[in-house]
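ok trying this again, last paste got cut off
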Amino acid sequence: TIAGPTSCLSGRVVPQTQFCFKKWPKLGLHFRVDDRENRLDLIKRGRADIVILHPHQVPAELDSKVIKPDEYSLVGHPDWRGRSMRDILENERLFAFHSDDHTSLNYLKTFELLSHLKRPRLFANENRALCQLFVEGVGFGILSREIAEPFLRDGLLIKLNQGRTMKDPLALAWFPRAEMPAY
């Protein structure tokens, strides 16, 4: 079982593991989407074998490997092209996955935009729902590069904030095994 945030699992891990299932047809690989900030307890309780964490969250007792960071863009409806970020932040709805998901707030802090946000965040904890809200112009928010790409390519969404992206560092973490299996 590999546990990680929605953006990384659905956008990167699942597509990249398809070859594993073809190469090893008896492989039993489970995916556990978990957007909580603290996924460390999943591995400590034996509910996951590998977890995706931020590198600073990896304790000394786990082995880890830094992986490519998630890359987030602020996206919105194409009709908003040309509007100032201040206008959008003051007058439109910012959507996030859930109240404990601070990625959108971190994005706004990174680009010194948080002070312009005047409305409370709203929440939809599923990528398809978020994308639908953005495509319909109900609100805006951040999406990982892999999730946003088809909507940007088809002209259903545009990048806001001059296309600036925020990188979110990630690491795979697991308990070391004293004796590795033969395979």
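PB: full thing came through this time. The longest strand covers residues 63-76.
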